[in-house]
Amino acid sequence: MFQVDLNCDLGESFGRFKLGEQEEILKYITSANIACGFHSGDPSVMRETVKMAISNGVKIGAHPGLPDLNGFGRREMAITPQEGYDMVVYQIGALQGFLATFNEKMQHVKPHGALYNMAAKDPHLAEAIAQAVYDISPSLILFGLSGSELTKAGEKIGLRTAHEVFADRTYQQDGSLTSRSQKDAMITDHEQSAAQVVKMAREGKVVSQQKTEVSLRADTVCIHGDGKHALLFAKYLKESLEQNNITIAAISNWEEASYGKY
């Protein structure tokens, strides 16, 4: 049986700045990564996003990022592993406060943007982030780029770890994502996007920009909620997965034996 979790970055509005159609996207996903105020989001947006996710039966995770509102957390910063640890603990705690008011448990933690990409390559930062998640609760699931230093660190410390792939991003032959600074980093055609995800879910492979097949694990698939056609992507992707007999379910509902098929 093939199965995937569908996750989306949400709660990334703040103040008068509104981003995405999250109320509609929640109808098509199984896990929500909610911004915790550093790269985006504010207390009122966090509360409202938690409320909407619960009402749609969507599992909730923290989406901690670098403290960079102007750059949306997508610009690298020179931080120490200890600073990375502290940032992640702080932001998880902020979201946990709102979850407590709804008597809801947190499912996972997924770093955002530059913090995510830095941890994918830097083993020391990856270990600090994994330690932060583990210290708050060993039952939390750590989301990280498939085959990255972050997923390795999560597995090493004993966390349930979900290897993440991307619906709307292209890949390099080493399994990394194509840098957003390159014009071919994003996939804008929803049919191409869905075909890539189906191949990753069923075969555990993706075709890189260098036209080579790269092996990876596809536990959870990311849909970017700030994309221009995010809602169309989400709807079409869900339909394509179902048509290809791929079950869509929140990762906390999987049996642990289902992890690591590839």
Which stretches of 5+ consecutive residues score pLDDT under 50? none
What's the mean pLDDT score? 90
Secondary structure: number of strands: 10
The CATH topology annotation reads as TIM Barrel
How many domain units? Answer: 1
Q: Strand order, biggest sheet?
A: 1-2-3-4-5-6-9
The CATH homologous superfamily is termed Glycoside hydrolase/deacetylase
Instruction: Return the string of H and E elements.
Output: EHEHEHEHHEHEHEEEHE
Q: Total helix count?
A: 8
The oligomeric state of the chains shown is: single chain
For the biggest sheet, the summary is: 7 strands, parallel, barrel
Helix-strand blueprint:
Blueprint: E1 2-10, H1 22-25, E2 31-35, H2 43-55, E3 59-63, H3 81-101, E4 108-109, H4 113-121, H5 123-136, E5 141-145, H6 149-157, E6 160-166, H7 190-203, E7 205-207, E8 213-215, E9 220-223, H8 230-243, E10 246-248
Parallel strand pairs: 1-2, 1-9, 1-10, 2-3, 3-4, 4-5, 5-6, 6-9
Antiparallel strand pairs: 7-8
Helix pairs in contact: 3-5, 4-5, 5-6, 7-8
